[in-house]
Design goal:
The structure holds 2 protein chains of 2 kinds. Chain A is mainly β. Chain A has one domain. Helix content of chain A is 10%, strand content 56%. In chain A, strands 3, 4, 7, 10, 12, 13, 15, 17, 19 and 21 form a 10-stranded mixed beta sheet that branches. The longest helix of chain A is centred in the last third of the chain and has 12 residues. By secondary structure, chain B is α/β, with parallel strands linked by helices. Chain B has a single domain, classed as Rossmann fold (3-Layer(aba) Sandwich). Chain B is built from 9 helices and 10 strands. In chain B, strands 6-7-8-3-9-10 form a 6-stranded mixed beta sheet, sandwiched between helices. In chain B, helix 3 packs parallel to helix 6. Chain B is globular, with a radius of gyration of 18 Å. Chain B starts with a strand and ends in an 8-residue tail after the last helix. Classes of the chains: A mainly beta, B alpha/beta. The interface between A and B is medium-sized, with 21 and 23 residues.
Chain lengths: 311, 237
């Protein structure tokens, strides 16, 4: 395995997406411009090359692992890079693990900087996974900054996965697809935050199948669309058993932005309880008024409202 | 001292809500504004806080003409306004709102004092969002706490008792008494006799006009008599 040292741009991007300054404790795999910039396994978390020979890695978390963290950030630091990676996670029974992913794409020229991460999670019985993912775009070039993650999740009985994903600056194009299949008593929780401006576009799609008795999912997407940006939100929850599914899409829209929200619920069992809430609108005028009575200007009030909404 | 001079406010679609109203909210006193529903009390509060501007007439604060100042400017001059129907925010915590109101990050002790005054248990509430998950009574207390957090010289409260259960009401009365002792100027819109009972001054507004104003002992008996008689208190003019 070739290890390329981190360059300055990557170091900065990774600090922003992981909150770490190039040094990671525990297990990690750092990806830079489609290559590897560092890898470490631990006793409980083994990181190995992808078995099918695809670009990417497999992360094996031993059964019973107790609250360990693994970092798998990626950086694309220049234009004309199209990074495609396949990362498969095998989470052993009863393990609890925090996965800090995240990606930064940077271009200072007219070439596209693109990261396309295909992630599959095989989560064992009673395991508990927290997946944190922050996406940013940077650089002054005309080239597009693009991140198109695909996430496929398989939750075994009583497993739980919490996804916390945020993309609030600099990514020009994103097309996110998340699918999940849930066995009995397993739970999926998703918190997605998105902000687009200028001519950025963001498309996000969730497809969740609640297969087992008492499986449950809670999808909450909050977004802000400004400038001439466009956002599309699609969600589909299929309840095949007695189960509980909830999705909510809340968008603040301004300027000439366009937001589409299309939730779909499919109940294939009379005991499937499925709910969707969607709201798209400008910042409520009375919220601005209230904050102005506390001494904020109109601009400060708007910034405060958006900051809270996307926190 | 807040003063309205011949203020009229007409709805954009027509209809006079405040009709040539002149009155003085005396400095350092608790003035309770009362009167029938739809009489213009909330409009009066919004005119003072700058949420709406008079169609004609002037508004003065300590002698300064503030008619053309906006909401933010009036807030920064030291006028606070508690909404009758508090605003809900997705994603803003009780602590976040109170920090914003105070203009700095409140210490835990400061938060305890503020939330304690309005009868909220600090630990249960500071990290909760000021959203639809709060009951009407809870959010009303947060609203009052946001005014207390500002600590300004002038505070306007619009029906602070709405949604507050009778057990907590004593605490609220104590809050207003304490502000009185600190020499703060307060205008409280209320129909509650227990707030009328601690007023220095009572102002009766009806049909957008001043029906009566004076010290509590002078105005209250007439109000109560009017209530027994079952008609609106018209009082003296």
């Amino acid at each position: 395995m070739n290890i390329n040292p981190l360059n300055e741009v990557a170091r900065d991007l990774l600090a922003q997406v992981t909150g770490k300054d190039g040094e990671f404790e525990g297990a990690y795999n750092i990806r830079q411009d489609a290559g590897c910039a560092g890898r470490r396994s631990t006793e409980n978390i083994k990181i190995v090359p992808h078995r099918e020979g695809k670009p990417g890695i497999e992360i094996h978390v031993a059964p019973g692992t107790d609250k360990e963290t693994v970092y798998i950030p990626a950086a694309v630091t220049k234009g004309h890079v199209n990074d495609l990676t396949y990362n498969d996670f095998y989470i052993g029974e009863g393990a609890s693990v925090i996965i800090v992913a995240g990606c930064g794409v940077h271009t200072d020229d007219d070439g596209e900087a693109k990261h396309n991460g295909v992630h599959r999670f095989f989560v064992g019985k009673n395991a508990d996974v927290v997946y944190e993912e922050k996406h940013i775009g940077a650089g002054t070039g005309e080239g597009k900054r693009r991140i198109d993650p695909v996430t496929d999740i398989y939750l075994d009985e009583d497993a739980k996965m919490t996804i916390d994903t945020i993309q609030i600056s600099g990514v020009d194009v994103t097309d996110r697809v998340t699918t999940a299949a849930l066995k009995a008593q397993s739970k999926l929780i998703v918190r997605e935050r998105l902000l687009t401006n200028e001519t950025q576009t963001a498309k996000t799609r969730f497809d969740v199948v609640l297969e087992g008795e008492d499986a449950g999912c809670d999808l909450v997407s909050r977004s802000v669309a400004r400038g001439r940006s466009r956002q599309e939100f699609y969600s589909r929850i299929i309840g095949k058993a007695r189960c509980h599914g909830h999705s909510a899409c809340d968008a603040i829209i301004d300027d000439e932005a366009v937001v589409t929200a299309a939730p779909q619920l499919d109940a294939l069992n009379p005991d499937a309880m499925l709910i969707h809430e969607a709201a798209i609108g400008k910042i409520a005028g009375e919220q601005i008024l209230k904050l102005r009575t506390l001494g904020l200007t109109e601009e400060e009030a708007e910034a405060k409202i958006v900051e809270g909404f996307l926190k | 001292m807040l003063e309205l001079s011949h203020v009229t406010w007409v709805l954009p679609e027509g209809g006079t809500i405040i009709d040539d109203l002149s009155l003085v909210i005396p400095k350092g006193k608790l003035s309770v504004v009362t009167g029938p529903n739809g009489g213009g009390k909330t409009t009066l509060a919004k005119l003072l806080a700058g949420l709406i501007h008079p169609t004609s007439g002037r508004i003065y604060f300590d002698g300064r003409d503030i008619t053309d100042l906006n909401i933010t400017e009036r807030a920064n001059l030291g006028i606070s306004y508690g909404f009758q129907t508090p605003v809900r925010f997705k994603g803003m915590t009780v602590k976040g709102l109170l920090d914003t109101a105070a203009g700095h990050t409140l210490s835990f002790d400061e938060l305890c004092e503020l939330t304690g005054k309005v009868g909220l248990c600090t630990l249960d509430y500071i990290d909760r969002d000021v959203d639809a998950s709060l009951s009407g009574g809870e959010i009303k207390r947060v609203e009052i706490a946001s005014i207390l957090a500002r600590g300004t010289d002038v505070s306007i409260f619009d029906e602070p008792e709405a949604g507050i259960d009778m057990w907590s009401f004593n605490g609220l009365v104590d809050v207003f008494k304490a502000l009185k002792e600190e020499g703060k100027t307060m205008m409280v819109i209320s129909h509650q006799q227990r707030l009328l009972d601690i007023a220095d001054e009572i102002i009766v507004i009806s049909a957008g006009q001043l029906r009566d104003q004076g010290p509590r002992d002078q105005v209250l008996p007439g109000l109560l008599a009017g209530e027994i008689a079952g008609h609106c208190p018209l009082g003296r003019r």
